[in-house]
Design brief:
The protein has about 290 residues and is α+β, with helices and mostly antiparallel strands. The protein has two domains: about 5-130 and about 280-290, Diaminopimelate Epimerase, Chain A, domain 1 (Roll), CATH 3.10.310; about 130-265, Diaminopimelate Epimerase, Chain A, domain 1 (Roll), CATH 3.10.310. The chain is about 25% helix and about 35% strand. The protein has an 18-stranded mixed beta sheet that branches. The protein starts with a strand and ends with a strand.
């Protein structure tokens, strides 16, 4: 038997919001097989959205591998925030670094910007965006998302952008409609699998908090749950959407996220040196050791 340092953190917390839960095992010099990681992640079904396994890297300060209860995940923004926030804060030599490098198992190297002292937050450089063509119509999407007729905006395009996860971005006309929809998870999973979509992000330019720039929700049935309450990769795709549609000039903004069943979470976005950065803080809820 071996024990690993373990934390369960909520990422993108703000005020009374509960953030997005992720768990992390720090592997140190004892790597695990993919089968072991998947087994542990499956045990966490219903407890956290994703598991992050943080190991040693010859190329960077840490290596991150992501699993949901269903499968290995290409990239997990909130898990990266939760893991790197704790790793940097608890490691004196990393706290001295303005930029910490992390190797991801499938998406290459990422930069983690240490703003813990200044903002109590870390920022992650999102993977470079990849655009995928789509011929999906507003009628199809209103049906599968169970949106009322004519509530998807025709003034802005429907697009698929991969900035970590292949994200279908759907503009909704008003906030009340956008926060009130709860589509059928099994039907939505079949739809996503059939159209090679990882997650669906709906957004409204109306917000509940006047200081927020926009409101988003992210549906992720392929990973074993309907909704992701606060999302780095999805909002990174959204940031690239905002930039290319000339809706945003790259200055620091906050995106509020969530349905009307929760206190909205907050994801920070900014554009610097040709990169979209997403960030926030994390709140550790459980800390201890995991026995394998």
């Amino acid at each position: 038997m071996r024990r690993y340092r373990y934390i369960k953190s909520n990422a993108f917390t703000a005020g009374e919001s509960l953030g997005n839960p992720a768990a992390c095992l720090f592997l140190d010099d004892a790597p695990m097989t993919g089968e072991q990681m998947q087994s542990i992640a499956s045990e966490h079904k219903g407890f956290v959205m994703e598991m992050v396994f943080c190991g040693q890297s010859e190329k960077s300060d840490a290596k991150l591998t992501y699993y949901s209860s269903e499968c290995e995940v290409d990239f997990c923004g909130h898990g990266t925030i939760a893991t790197m926030y704790s790793l940097i804060k608890d490691t004196p030599e990393l706290m001295l670094k303005p930029v910490v490098m992390a190797e991801t198992n499938r998406k290459g190297m990422i930069e983690v910007y240490n703003a813990i002292k200044e903002e109590d937050a870390v920022y992650i450089s999102a993977p470079d965006p990849i655009e995928h063509p789509t011929e999906l119509t507003t009628t199809q999407l209103e049906e599968i998302l169970e949106l009322p007729c004519d509530t998807i905006s025709k003034d802005l395009p429907i697009r698929i952008i991969d900035a970590g996860l292949r994200t279908l971005i759907v503009p909704v006309k008003d906030l009340e409609t956008e926060i009130s929809v709860y589509p059928n998870v099994s039907r939505l999973k079949t739809f996503c699998e059939g159209n090679d979509i990882d997650i669906i992000l709906t957004f409204s330019m109306q917000t509940a908090d006047t200081s927020a720039f926009a409101h988003t929700r992210v549906f992720a049935p392929r990973f074993g749950y309907l909704e992701d309450p606060a999302t780095g990769s999805g909002n990174s795709a959204f940031a690239n959407y905002l930039l290319s549609e000339k809706l945003w000039d790259g200055h620091l903004i906050a995106i509020e996220q969530g349905g009307n069943d929760r206190v909205f979470n907050s994801v920070k976005l900014k554009y610097a040196n040709g990169k979209v950065l997403f960030g926030g803080k994390a709140t550790v809820k459980i800390e201890g050791y995991y026995i394998v």
